Amino acid sequence: MSDLKQTVFHSRHQALGAKMAPFAGWEMPIQYEEGIVAEHLATRRFSGLFDVSHMGRFVIRGPNARPFLQYVLTNNAESLDSSETGAQYTFIPNAAGGAIDDAYLYRFTEDEYTLVVNASNRQKDWDHFQEVIRGFEDVELTDRTHEIVMLALQGPSSRSLLEGMIESGSLPSPMRNAVSTVQIGGLPVTLARTGYTGEPICFELFASSESGPALWDLLVDKGATPVGLGARDSLRLEAGLPLYGHELGTDPEGREIPIMACPLSKFAVSFSPLKGDFIGREALAKQHRALERIIEQDYSRIADLPRRFYPVALLGRGIARQGARIGKNGKQVGFVGSGTMVPYWIWEGQGLASRLTDKHDMRSICLAYLDSDTIEDDRLQVEVRGREIEAAVVKCHLRSEAPPYARAILYEPQAPAREIPRLDNRTRALDLLEKAIANTKWRQEECINLIPSEMSTSPMTRLLSILDPSFRYAEHKDIKAFCDQEIFYYQGTDFIAEVEKLLGNEIRRFLGCRWVELRAISGQMANTAVFSAMADYINRADRRCEPRRIRKVMNHYLGRGGHLSAQPMGALRDYVARDPHTERPAVVAFPVRPENPYKVDVPATQALIEEHRPELIIFGKSMVLHKEPVAEVCRFLAEQRLDSVVMYDMAHVLGLAGPHFQEPFREGAHVVTGSTHKTFFGTQRGVIGSNYNEHEAHFELWEAVRRRVFPGSVSNHHLGTLLGLLMAAYELNHFKDEYQAGVIANAKAFARALHDCGLKVAGDPGIGFTETHQVVVEIGYGRGAEIARRLEENNIICNYQALPDEEGFTAAGALRLGVAEMTRFGMGGADFRELAPLMCAVVKGGAKVVEEVKALRSRFRELRFCFKDGDFDPLIQRLHRCL
User: Helix or strand or coil: residue 227?
Assistant: First the structure.
């Protein structure tokens, strides 16, 4: 092995007993003493440390670096910035649409890019670039493979391991491909949330060659498990990731594999106009058109993509090896690209209640290059040592969207349909009634309800919600020919028309606005109607043209407590444009203050508004501890003469609107939406309000909102809950001051008490941690679901919450608590201070306090802030008799 190159970690591998072998001209560790299976399992459960310094690292600089990369790579280098999304998977294409190599492009600083290529293709890639670079002036291409080391730290505990080592700087944002620069052990290290194992918690570390060995030692000392190339290969195969020479390059018959045959091509190939022409664009466009037809199961005219790669599970004993033939119904349909036996951890239970056991098993899987008319669940025969082994096409071998763990997906053949036994519906109905009564008694009399998005309604609101209007229709529309009078399309609607008019008066009085739309039956629908109306409004000049979407939106990022309905994955999805530079939805998030990620950084926000000039600015969150800077932003817009629409989604804080918290219309908001069943007293509905003047141009937006509600979103607008909401509005307007002041005081008292018990409460302690009904308690990364379930077992109902720096709700490390409902049941500051140590005992020590919680709740079973006296009692009895 004297001619083989060695990484700077070679002596470390030898000291750990690694089995060394040649790989792409390097002497590399294939496995350590525990073996490939143990290393694979350690990565999936803990953290695996990989020496990947054998891979090529090219640095590209100069004024024309980006145009050069746009021409020689398939992805859009324009979309990279050096602050967050600083990395992307890509291909190095040839003119025919095949892959010279696959690679990862990083932008750690503004003025240079780093391209990581496969070790076996490093010289080939270099020669290709040297040929192409002649057509580009002012591009500096440097091979720094031997100057920069590269380590991969992959697995669920990688995050906590790194957090304990960072001396300055911070982890990259909790998004795939984010980057940052930190200092570890006095060494400068560049981090990227990337990796090639399928792990949702993954990092790659770049440092100088001189720093590399010390960095390796620190990581191993902290508990990272060294992993060789053997397990690296089984991990990437289980994740369905391609390997050059197997799923890229040429197939066993010597034909070039089209790039679009690789499933990752949807992330790695861009046809953005910003790229202009690039190598292989025409061929890739043909492959892409063929792929679109294949997805639609139209298998005509797919000569440009006759085969694709699919994950396949073997059902019999045997290992699928590269190049093995695969048949279906006696006809050969393809080959194995990569295949092996992989281990997997066994989970017990279902969903979030599932538990990782100490047991593991093995399964035989492969990636197969198959005819493009193959579909999921197709049965195949894989040739294994002269025998045909039964196999099935599967959707995937591994899922990674539930951090911190990647979970093995086992193939389960569809069970034959069973005849459904005839059941006694009368018995089932009685059982349903018994269970519903028991559940209501439990939630209303024995539990402390702390979910901030819930509210028990008053007895009269409940009764009114199920009276006669609840199963009627009352569609209506204002008609210009009748002087903007509401015209109803059904008879028998005089009463509900009066109710809707009275409710409008109450909501306008509550919000302090001119106009309200009450027919949306949820806050999500209310937001959707506004977004749809915005699209309608911005296209009002010429409705014959292809409509454009909202050019740019500013909102709260979901991971920092933003509401789902205001996200591109939610109600905003079909109405926001795509940024031509990033090819992602044209959304910019409110920046937050470094010392308090729950509060908007106003100066930074103003700078972003000036830069991006959003057409729509959406305030409002689901994790909300502070007031929104509505006045500051509206004032800035006026000073800059920017015509942005300012919307405040008050879903969680609608019931607090007023001088005790925030009055958005007084502060300049144009549109307010909300849910009427969270801090508001009402039934589950949505509202939209506006303060536009009839004679100003923007009033057309309000008219569009009304059209997008009806007939755009709803026909029957649930008249029963509309009637119940009117009673709730009467109650809230009557008791508003006392209720709102009590909620905010209770939240502050609860937050302080939890803090005094030793729990970590988020927010600003200088103002009592919160200005709303919510309290956020940090309980430890990934423990949210477990602790919320433990509290439920003790009759304390809350929900777990992902913190701003966490990867998703399954990795949640916090509890989101709300005091509004229990305030309405009569709990005060002293009572929440009594609850705090009970919660702390459960969270910190696993105590059983269910009886103490029941005793506490027994004192608070009668709903407050609602009408109840002798004047109402006879009418309530008559309501009961109506049912």
Answer: strand
Residue whose token pair is 């492959």: 287
51-63 pLDDT, tens digit per residue, is 999 999 999 999 9
Cα torsion 173, 177, 182, 187 to 10°: value is 160
CA 228 to chain centre: 32
At a CB cut-off of 8 Å and minimum separation 6, what does 813 contact?
A: 778, 779, 780, 781, 782, 783, 784, 802, 803, 806
Question: Taking CA 614 as the corner, what is the angle to CA 613 and CA 615, rounded to the nearest 5 degrees?
Answer: 120
Q: How far apart are CA 316 and CA 314, in angstroms?
A: 6
Q: What number of other Cβ atoms are within 10 A of residue 325's Cβ? A: 14
Q: Alpha helices of 512-587 — where are they, by DSSP H? A: 523-538
Separation between Cα atoms, residue 844 and residue 199, nearest integer Å: 29
d(CA 602, CA 6): 52
Q: Hey, which bits of 34-79 come out as E strands?
A: 48-51, 56-61
Sheet holding 148-154, edge to edge: 166-168, 179-184, 187-192, 202-208, 148-154, 48-51, 225-227
First to last CA, the chain: 88
CA distance 702 to 537: 9
Residue type, 45: R
Angle (nearest 5°) at CA 178 between 173 and 183? 75
pLDDT at 777 over 50: yes
**Contact (CB, 8 A) for 164 and 156:** no
pLDDT tens track for 101-153: 999 999 999 889 999 999 999 999 999 999 999 999 999 999 999 999 999 99
Query: Which of 140, 101, 95 is CA-nearest to residue 121?
Result: 101
Distance CA 320, CA 340 (A): 6
User: Cβ–Cβ contacts within 10 Å for residue 613, how many?
Assistant: 15
Does the pTM surpass 0.85? The reply is: yes
For residues 646-674, one letter each, b for 16 or more C-beta atoms within 10 angstroms of the residue's C-beta and e for the rest, the string is: bbbbbbbbbbbbbebbbebbebbbbbbbb
